[in-house]
Structures are given as C-alpha cells and as structure tokens.
C-alpha cells in the first residue's frame, strides 16, 4: 500500500514556531510594552501615596517625627469630625438619590414621545463644570426671594395659602389707647361702650410701603339708632411733618383690611374689617368689650427658607449634586434598560402583573448590575467632593457643610499644616479603597457569569 500523505507541517511543528497572536505573546514582551505605563503609574499614583504616608508621620514643618500624632489630632479636631459626619451623609444620601432619580427618569423617558429631547435636557448639567454649577446654585439658594429662585417659589406657595400682612411693623405710640397683648396683638386699655366712637392710632409703617388701596383716613361717624361702636384705625403720622397726635388728619392714611375684634371674657363677640379709609363699625353686642387688633394684622412677610443656614446647607449642596449627576445615572440606566429582553416584560404583563409589579419584580432585578455600576461610581465620586462644597456655602455656614476634601485643602493651604493634611489624605484614601475593592469584585463576578 502506498504510504499516507502527510501535510507539509504537522500541528506540533506549527506550535514550535511560537505564538502568532497578541493574546499568546510572550510574557516578557508584554511586560516590555506595559513598562512605560507602569512607570507613569508608579510616578503619578504609587509614589504620592507612599510619600503621603511618610509625610503624615512628621509635624507641620516636616522635621520632627510625631508618629501617629497627626492622626490623633485629626480625630480630635471638631471641624474634621464634622467633615467626617458630612462625608457619611454624602455617601449614603447623594448616590442613592441620584441613582433612584436616574432610574425613574430612564423608565419614564421610554414612555414619552420626546424622550430623546428630555434626556438631553436632564443630561445637560453634566456639561457644566462643578465650579459653574456651584455659582449657579449659590444664586438659586439666595435668601432674598427677589434674587433666589428657590425662595421665590417657597414664598409664592406660602403666600398662596397664608397671605402676609401689609402692616408688619405697625404699633401704637407709648401711652396711647392701645397696649401690647400676648402673641403680638394689641388691646384697648379700657372697654368700649355702645353708641360711642373709638380712635385706634398706629405708627411704624413707612408711607411708601402703604397698600395702594389705602385712602385718606376719615373720622368715625356717630353710631346710628341701633347703637354699636364706630371707629377708625389709621397711620397717625403726617408725611412732611405737621398733624395732631391721636387725631385724624386729612393727609394721614387709613389701614385698609385691618381686622378688629371685640373681646369679652376672653371670647370674641364681634369682629370687623377696616375700609380703605380705616373706618369700621361693630354691633351693639360689643358693648363692654375691649377691642383687639389680632397678631395676624402684623405678621412679618414670609422670607422663605434658610437654604444655606447651618441646618440645611449640607442637604442643599447635595441637591445641587443630584441635579448634576441624575442625568449621568439616567443615561447609563437607560442604556441598560434598552438591552433588557422585552419578552420577559411582556410575559409578566400577560401573566397579569401591573406596571408597578413589572417595574419592581422584573425591571429592577434585571437592571441590578447597571444600578451597581452607577451606585459605586457615584460613591467614589462623592467621597472626594470638593467644588460644590467650597463654592455654595457662605462663610457663616462653611464649617457646617465641611467635608474631608475641603478640610484637606484648608489644612494644607490655609493653615499650612502639611502633616495633618497628609493624614487626612491617607484617611480619605482608606475610605475609598473598600468601595474600589467592591467594584473590582463586582467586575470579576460579572466576567465569570459571562464565561458561563
């Protein structure tokens, strides 16, 4: 029989020639290509970490060895303890809220006609730098409602349900017919009698802020045959000087809308509102009562919410952060949502599940890997938050909004203590490491699942 034909090269001889693909490149050649990157990584990452560890063991000048003294000082400083507490709030609240809001927006934008345009608007804050966003929200949170958008909305909503008084600073003169009562009200010193007139002079309201409906005050007319009480409540002040105290003068204005109550034995037996000229009348049953001007007449205008005060400043800055990063979360979650198997969602609906059940039991579990990516990314981001916290809070509330990155900057460049600043940086690095390890572990787990 003829000998079997053999190929020019056997498999063994082919393998002996060495690797032919990038993935089978010799390890030494791979190290050679990676060497420039490893050098840069060591110079830009590893060396600063090691230098900071060493520097944190010396005093502010760098000459005296203090061991762990900088770390003890760090944890005994009230400003740093406040920064650690605020960082904990940031770590829990900001990533959670931004991820949840991004999930809701991603689901909703799939159901509206102009979803792409809406996504563009929500993602647009990501194109703005942190510094510019901080300046924007510093103006948004201004206390003056005429400048701050947040307080303009708050004041509008408040005044819709509880209108402020036009006479917040009005008050009687000393030794007048009125005296101060509890809660900011004013009472007549003596009871009034039916068939008489009463004058209630007030001062304290600037002429240029009097209501447009105010008219020149008029002396009260005598009560009719049925008795009762007639009176006038007015601004007992003549612009430009002149006039007589406790007497209605032609140039003085009435207090339109001022509420007057007749109080007898602690109960209101009658009430009235003053007209544009300040005149009012009460029925005869007010006989023997004392007249009261309730505190509602003098309620201060609602000035809005102290967004940048000590109690709310951290939450306000977190709100600015969520405004910026909710779009980032929405885009990533939307990409994951687009890759979901639609047959599973339709099968759930066919089985009778409502939209909320489909969202909670099908959509969210399937999006769990994407949600994990977004959440971990934002957690790493907020641990080193600096720009917004440095720009938004005013000087009076900056200590209350303090975080570790800002405290690190102030300690190093304002106080000039490089030792404690290095200790803060190492502590901040230690806080970031567990989150990074969690992210690496998640990536490895996903790779194993993909290989299966």
From TrEMBL:
Coiled-coil annotated spans: none
Pfam families assigned to the protein according to its UniProt record, in alphabetical order: BPD_transp_1
Region (Disordered): 1-22
TM segment ranges: 29-50, 88-108, 120-141, 320-341, 362-383, 418-438
Compartment(s) where it occurs, according to its Swiss-Prot or TrEMBL record: Cell membrane
Residue ranges of every copy of the ABC transmembrane type-1 domain listed in the record: 84-439
InterPro entries per record: MetI-like, MetI-like_sf, UgpAE/MalFG_permease
Membrane topology term: Multi-pass membrane protein
Highest taxon of source: Bacteria
Main location (coarse class): membrane
Keyword line: Cell membrane, Membrane, Transmembrane, Transmembrane helix, Transport
Family the UniProt entry places it in: Belongs to the binding-protein-dependent transport system permease family.
Protein name: Sugar ABC transporter permease
Lineage: Bacteria, Bacillati, Actinomycetota, Actinomycetes, Kitasatosporales
